[in-house]
Amino acid sequence: MTETAEVHLPRTQRVRAERAGYSAAPVRVVSVSRKTSSRSAHRGEPSGRTVSVRFPVAPFIRRQAYGPGRTLRRLTPVAGHWRGPVDAPVRITKKVNLVDTPPNRTSE
What we know:
Distance between the termini: 53 Å
């Protein structure tokens, strides 16, 4: 998906650029994205996305907000769990994590 738009400088900046001898012609901006965003404007609102399969979620660490004005962060471990409806089919994929690569063998 692409979006193309012509962007003009605000009048004050356009006049300043022309006085300094620069071109103040409009600029064509092309925005490229893989898919349209289905995210809602606010974080608390549901996205409307439904999950039709059940899959495992690996354990992870969450930076949990707390304190006055929720400005402080504490590391909270989240245990592994299953995501999706209980009666949905299970989807398990192979995931490979490369921990360390063997050293390159040079000719001796």
